[in-house]
Design goal:
The complex is a heterodimer.
Chain A (H helix, E strand, L loop, with lengths): L17 E5 L11 E7 L2 E8 L7 H5 L4 H9 L6 H16 L5 H29 L3 H22 L19 H25 L3 H7 L7 H6 L4 H6 L6 H4 L20 H28 L20 H6 L1 H12 L7 E9 L2 E9 L7 E5 L1 H6 L2 H5 L4 H10 L4 H5 L1
Antiparallel strand pairs in A: 1-2, 2-3, 4-5, 5-6
Chain B lengths: L4 H12 L4 E4 L5 E5 L4 H10 L7 E9 L8 E9 L4 E9 L5 E3 L8 H12 L2 E3 L41
Parallel strand pairs in B: 2-5, 6-7
Antiparallel strand pairs in B: 1-2, 3-4, 4-5
The chains are: A mainly alpha, B alpha/beta.
Amino acid sequence: MSEHHIKLPEGSIEKTTTTLNLGPTHPATHGVMQNILELDGERIVSTEQTIGYIHRAFEKLAERRPLAQITTLTDRLNYCSSPLNNMGWHLTCEKLLGVKTPKRVDYLRVIIMELARISDHLICNSIVGVDAGAYTGFLYVMQYRELIYEIYEEVCGARLTTNIGRIGGFERNFNDIAFQKLEKFLREYPKVLKEFENLFQRNRIFMERTMGTGAISAERALNYGFTGPNLRAAGVDYDVRVHSPYSSYEDFQFSIPVGTTGDNYDRWLVREKEMWESLSIIEQAYRKVQDFKGAEAEVYHADVPEYYLPPKADVYTKMEALIWHFKIIMGETEIPAGEVYNSIEAGNGELGFYLISDGGRTPYRLHFRRPCFVYYQAYEELIKGSMLSDAIMTMSSLNLIAGELDA
Amino acid sequence: MALTNETIKARLTEKFGDQLSHVEEPYGMLTFEAPKELNLKVLNFLYDDEELKFRFLTDLTAVHYPDKKGRELAVVYHLHNMTDNIRIRFKVFTDISQPDIYTATGLFSAANWMERETYDFFGINFVGHPNLKRILNVEEMDYFPLRKEFPLEDQTRIDKDDEMFGRG
């Protein structure tokens, strides 16, 4: 301390902290969640997270719905990648019911799921950019998320809450426009992704904002139940697509990108690399789909009359089809009793469905293992002692989706 | 050698003997039950054992069976051994009038919010939990909404009674 400093008697200034309410409706939280931060200057001393602002009791609602009607609930979990949740749910039902899907359905599902993963990671990574002050990237890649949404639209008619697919397959075959749009996406997107990467990856400001902030060790991440890109950024190569392959993922060649430090920069990098892997998976799947010839190229669902709606023309002319139609629409099909846990690799990690059926027409109990909910509890540990501005970046790089958090 | 359900079963029986019950394998996942006083002992054993290494808590939730007297509430743990890539399901049952179960937060940080959620919806009292309060519902709530005594629909409606849903 130099002699220019005013010397105050000991204890004359009290050490005080400021309490700051971040959320529930704050533009930087990107969702409805509250953080009560105790700040010492700009440093975070402690934080208390409050969640549940958009809790909609899906688990309770599901106890009164036939299987097909629960798909719309899963849309609203991680709404940045609804098709992933939808497919996860269909796969769970198929596991319970013992439905075997044709290969073409699996490959079409892989295409849709990987498109959804790209749109999810795209949002997350560009929002991390926005929080670091770079809005351009976000606006630029939106065009390609739009293209992905147009592909969904061709397949299922919806864009955000897709309700895509049915138990056993898809509601209709992919039309030519869908494939043309997919080709356009495969043709144009790599260049855009490369440009997006160039904006950030070696950008000095971006690197300095993200490196070393919000870091977690592999051991802590596992203990906290991290999954998905956030776990892989910490260096653990766990990916449900590889560890317990579903929907014929075993037929594809791809690698699992991993990070080392588990900080915001590594999370960003892992998501970026995963988009490249997803692109390659889509290309492989599209080639496999094109290999089907003749009648095989028209297959888009399994033969499960109890759960898959018959064509409308048959409903008006055939007795059996009419009965199935009625039973499915009214939810009057008895589900076999059983207990099943099935998980998929969703945008944020392992999305699990724990389904118990007692032989009734609706699930006896359904529990969603939402990756967001599990890893958000580590947020306090991640940001303690860091600057407020880093806490915002950490929140967006964890990719917290309020819908998934609250269910 | 990759771990199999048989090996896990053998190791567990060796350690806990006939205290394990209801050992099943629905859809290939080893499922078993233990007395609720033993839940931490079992979890610790599964975690520490050099062969078993179930060190990842995938999911924790509860189920309400109002008809099973004395064992109305089930707490279900889904554990994952990532090295051998095998999952198991472990259940403990408790009486609804005294739903006390030891917390697993000492072993898994992930259990913190999962247990809060389970408490919030089923009223299971996790003994020793550092911060056991409601998480998704409002704190003023004085009931546990996922228990079966709270039917979803308006009680006055007769067009959607339980009979229509296959369990009259």
